[in-house]
Specification:
- The chain is of the alpha+beta class.
- Helix content is about 20%, strand content about 30%.
- The protein is built from 3 helices and 8 strands.
- It has a 3-stranded antiparallel sheet with strand order 1-4-8. A 3-stranded antiparallel sheet has the order 3-6-5. It has a two-stranded antiparallel ribbon with strand order 2-7.
Length: about 110
């Protein structure tokens, strides 16, 4: 289990930084786990669930840190998505980068390999 990614509104991330734990966005609370994407899934996740939203961050997380709390489960189109059944301690975060809207209205993803 490698790096997984979470798209987060900046305001929620600022709150998480105060406690060093991210316990999820409203959709995560509703579903009972924190939604993540793989590198191959993040662009489509942004387009489908965050279209037109500004002030977003992309958070890269070390998925190997979570053991059985991280499950890959079938979701959109049968693809396996990483779901974290625990809070996210910020010490598992590898980096946080802005995801601005480009001139075409789509999000500009940071380099996931850097």
């Amino acid at each position: 289990m490698g790096i997984i990614y979470k798209i987060v509104p900046r305001s929620l991330w600022v709150e998480a930084e105060k406690t060093a734990v991210f316990d999820g966005a409203p959709i995560d609370h509703q579903d009972g786990y924190i939604h993540f994407s793989t590198a191959e899934q993040v662009a489509e996740t942004a387009a489908l669930h965050f279209a037109g939203q500004g002030d977003l961050l992309l958070v890269a997380v070390d998925g190997a840190r979570f053991g059985e709390a991280l499950k890959y489960e079938a979701s959109r189109g049968g693809d396996l998505f990483p779901h974290l059944y625990a809070a996210l301690p910020l010490d598992a975060v590898l980096w946080v980068r802005p995801m601005p809207l480009g001139p075409d209205g789509h999000h500009v993803l940071p380099d996931l390999k850097a």
